[in-house]
């Protein structure tokens, strides 16, 4: 009997008219529209935050790689400085 979705819509409209009256229905739909708009806005904001988090997660390994590369280069520089000092000492002693 009520297999068609339009039947349900008609029943809901009749119930709304009975409970709220014909003058309150525009206000009801206006508030429902605002609620749907707020929901969509919140959903878009959460999706944007997720995208930002994903981008940050992708960038973090790059930053860590750069930091480890900088540390490696600093160690190499320190070793080369030690070798240079040893060479200077060995030249002075000769």
UniProtKB/TrEMBL annotation:
The keyword Protein transport applies. It comes from the Archaea. It is a single-pass membrane protein. Pfam families: TatA_B_E (PF02416). GO terms for biological process: protein transport by the Tat complex. It is found in: Cell membrane. The keyword Ion transport does not apply. InterPro entries: TatA/B/E, TatA/E. The chain crosses the membrane at residues 6-25. Residues 63-93 form a coiled coil. Its main location: membrane. Keywords: Cell membrane, Coiled coil, Membrane, Protein transport, Translocation, Transmembrane, Transmembrane helix, Transport. GO terms for cellular component: plasma membrane. NCBIfam families: tatAE. This is Twin-arginine translocase TatA/TatE family subunit. The lineage of its organism: Archaea, Thermoproteota, Thermoprotei, Sulfolobales, Sulfolobaceae.
């Amino acid at each position: 009997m009520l297999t068609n979705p339009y039947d349900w819509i008609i029943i809901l409209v009749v119930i709304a008219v009975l409970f709220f009256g014909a003058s309150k229905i525009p206000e009801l739909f206006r508030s429902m529209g605002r609620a749907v708009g707020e929901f969509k806005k919140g959903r878009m904001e959460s999706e944007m935050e997720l995208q930002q988090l994903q981008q940050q997660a992708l960038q973090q390994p790059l930053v860590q790689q750069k930091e480890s590369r900088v540390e490696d280069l600093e160690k190499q520089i320190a070793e080369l400085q030690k070798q240079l000092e040893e060479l200077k000492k060995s030249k002075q002693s000769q």
